[in-house]
Amino acid sequence: MKKLLTVLIAAVVLGYLAVSGLAYRHDTHYAAAAAALPAASPEAARIRNVLDRNACYYCHSANAVLPGYAALPGIRQLSDRDVQTGLRYFRLDTLYAALADGKPAPEADLAKLEAVAKDGSMPPALFRSVHWTTGLTDADRSALLDWIASQRKTAYGTHGVAPEFANEPVQPLPKSLPTNARKVALGLQLFHDPRLSADNSISCASCHSLSTGGVDNKKLSPGVGGTIGVINAPTVFNAALNHMQFWDGRAGTLQDQAGGPPLNPIEMASTSWDQIVGKLKKDDALTAAFTKVYPNGWSGANITDAIAEFEKTLLTPSRFDAYLRGDAHALNSEEVRGYQLFKANRCTTCHVGKNLGGQSFERMGRAADYFAARSNGLTDADNGRWGVTHDPLDRHAFKTPGLRNVELTAPYFHDGSRADLRDAVRDMAKYQVGTQLSDADVDAIVAFLKSLTGTWQPAH
After folding, report:
1. How far apart are CA 433 and CA 426, in angstroms?
2. First and final CA of the chain: distance in angstroms?
3. Residue 3's pLDDT is what?
């Protein structure tokens, strides 16, 4: 029986090799469709050609239509597994769109592409054995890495970064962001004003305390009347650098985000902006100051604009920023080793950019089933990005949290399930990368992460 099973498996694999190899030579439908979209530049055309020739779209595009052989028994299971795995880790449709319209490629996409170009892990060996024309050449690798470096320099680099770190997947914080000082002053006051809540008991600062890392250090935050929130409060520090706001990205801007909690029935529970404005208008001094900046007076749009302007000032430069700007003594040897391990374990394929995160949505449990291992059942909040897009591929995907001040922002993850930073690091290695870190490596990575603790300097 065992021999028969072995023979059957071998037959399926050999059939897969023969049929898929033949099909690959004739299957050009996706490449042709991509070519129909004009590339934004000759360089973009070269990069797209590298991706097309290596059939990256087979497993990493939600738009790819697999050839007919993929429906054959046995082969279908192999194809489904490859595609599902590929889409969990990296979807390149947005990168393709960037090559077509001339916009910068997403920062996390660049980091993922760089990692596999450097280590040669893509396309996988089995895929190359079937699709024998694939596999990055030295010229392909050089083209990809040069393009990635160019994209980073022009779109994502921080002024003042040391030359040796100019092409790092993470960057130092900017010194500041452009702001209107008078709006900032109003925003600071409104951020701490409990009158934005229905019973005048909760302000923005209640869940995002500036004295505790921009969070409240609770698993789930309490709202008006003792209601309890459904998801862990993320830090407000450096949030201006995120590409979207909230764990599920339902707010595209800081202003959109600021407008959410005041009207959320289980958070600040105000019924309308008219209710909030009615209370604030009774404050003559605040109203006088507000109308000097906003001549059209009180409104939800103006209130959230001021709060967002204030939040742009919440940058927290750290020793790590000094290191990236050229101060070789800003980090000790253990912290430097932790940073190297952080990169070597592909943490920087998601925790990228100036905020070391906040630039992409990633599935929680890519390498292992996080939710199956968790003791409690699924909640609506666990659906993540799916709640906004209703795309099945976005279920359990969350905005990658920025790691600045992570030492101060426990408990961790969207569900607040980990109270210890060392445990959080182990979990990320296990569930996202598929590796088990030694205690010494965990200690080094945690040492590095603590170097990201920074200081906010209030505007004067």
Report:
1. 10
2. 80
3. 52
pTM: 0.90
The Cα 203–Cα 191 span in angstroms is 6
The whole-angstrom separation of Cα 152 and Cα 321 is 17
285-323 tens-digit pLDDT: 999 999 999 999 999 999 999 999 999 999 999 999 999
According to CATH, the topology of domain 181-311 is: Cytochrome Bc1 Complex; Chain D, domain 2 (1.10.760)
Position of tokens 């799916």? 386
Residues forming beta bridges with residue 397, ordered by sequence position = 363, 384
Q: Find out whether 62 and 93 touch, Cβ atoms under 8 Å.
A: yes
Model pLDDT for residues 338-375, shown as the tens digit of each residue: 999 999 999 999 999 999 999 999 999 999 999 999 98
The superfamily (CATH) of domain 167-173+316-450 is Cytochrome c-like domain (1.10.760.10)
Per the residue annotation, which of 107, 114, 168, 267 is the catalytic one? 267
In SS3 terms, 186-212 reads as HHHHHHCCHHHCCCCCCCHHHHCECCC
Q: The tokens of 211 are what?
A: 């004295």
The tokens for 179 are 């702001």
Region 52-61: mean pLDDT is: 88
Distances (CA, A) of 399 to 135, 236, 359, 414: 31, 14, 7, 9
pLDDT of 384 higher than 60:
yes
* Catalytic annotation present for 267: yes
Domain boundaries, the chain: 2-156, 167-173+316-450, 181-311
Per-residue pLDDT, 5: 47
